[in-house]
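Quick check before the chapter quiz. The format below is the same one you will see on the exam, so make sure you can read both the input and the output lines.
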Amino acid sequence: MASQIEILENIIATNPNPKDVADAQAQLDQLNRLASIGSAQVQVASQQGTADADLLAVLGAIERAVKVGGGNVTQDEIRRLLNEELENRKIKESDLSPSLLSFINSKRQVNLTINKLLGVTITKDVEPSTLSRPLTQDILSDLMARNNVYLYGGAGTGKTFIAEEIAEMLGWTKVTINCNQFTSPLDILGGQTIDGYQEGKVSMAWSNVIKSADGKEEKVEGCVLILDELPKIDPNTAGILNEALAKVKDYKYDVVTKQFNPPTIRNGKNQVLPLGNLFVIATGNVPLNTIDPDYEANFKQDLSLQDRFIGSTYKVYVDYDFEFNDVMKGFAFIWLFLVKVREKIQDLNATGQAFVSLRLMINVKATYIAYREVVGDIVINKGKLNNKAIKDPKTIIESMETFFTLFKPSIKDALLSDVDFDGFKKIVEEKNAMPYNEMNPNFDTPSELKKVREVIEKYKESQKTI
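Here is the expected output.
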């Protein structure tokens, strides 16, 4: 892609229209002035000898180039320019002041306001990157329309993670039914047990009244009901779900009171429960009207269950960009290795044994943070941890070794060899020698960030052919 300067110079040299040439010359002069101002800022900052001023000047110069460059300057180009500049200037995070670090790493938030059918308004601060994802936009649209949502896709694509993320975004209580052949009507609508009456999870989510094991009740603002692995539920039990799923938008207008009356269901005590604030999100590995080849019970659901999610059924793919930039940034060495492991598991057709999910990435990252914090305490206190319970913290190598034991011996051996587990161990040793900033843990190097961009772009290209 030609730079803005090259485009303007080409117009000046070849365009026969005097007005176009004059406009291009004016833009080129402005760009040169801004570049000169940016360079002067950088020079002044360097003379001041502070990394903060140096970095801010670089950012200012890039910002001016972006404004002038318009659509010809992409986000990837900005990141590349900034990383190159930082590498050339030998600026490390440890050189920056805590206040600037805090500003750079602060997450901007936007306001999410949703007006629902009964006039209830949800106002939350939401991460812009999360809100702007196309799938999030679709799901929030379904929330406003009171549509049930069904997410399906391969193991580890983040279906349940997305559902939980929506619950967090709304600030509603998450109620989950883990569906399988043993899920019973008791789990759904409630009923009598040896120990007494047990309220069903659908009943609680429907009425927005959460009942604990000790009988205490809590009225909540709203509920996101997650039907996890819905295709695995026994079709006869699924029939009990159908009534509730069909009624979620069945409001009746009362011409006398001029109000909408919410739909109702009955729980295990035959009590009538009016609908509160409820959003239903179901997940599965396959569409609802097909058989999951990796599930031994091999249920095929009735088409009526599929109809409860019609028009709001989405196939979920792994989102490499989101995984790294929203979850794993600062830990590129972990993300790159786990992506390699994931792709190799897929090549070996071994996802039925175990798979790399976003949850695994989060857990491994958290394990490494905990390890560095405990080790840091040991160093600071010179090994005297009389008040500490952990003296030999778990490492991420141990985490991965535990993960690999989930595979059959032949698959495990192939994985360990092809993903270069020994090479990963050496990288971890190098990271262990790096300084640890508890407020802003970041172990990314320019070369790793370059590799991340390459992996993300390669994956995006591969998705275009699907």
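If your answer matched, good. Residues 37-49, 103-108, 382-387 have pLDDT under 50 and may be disordered.
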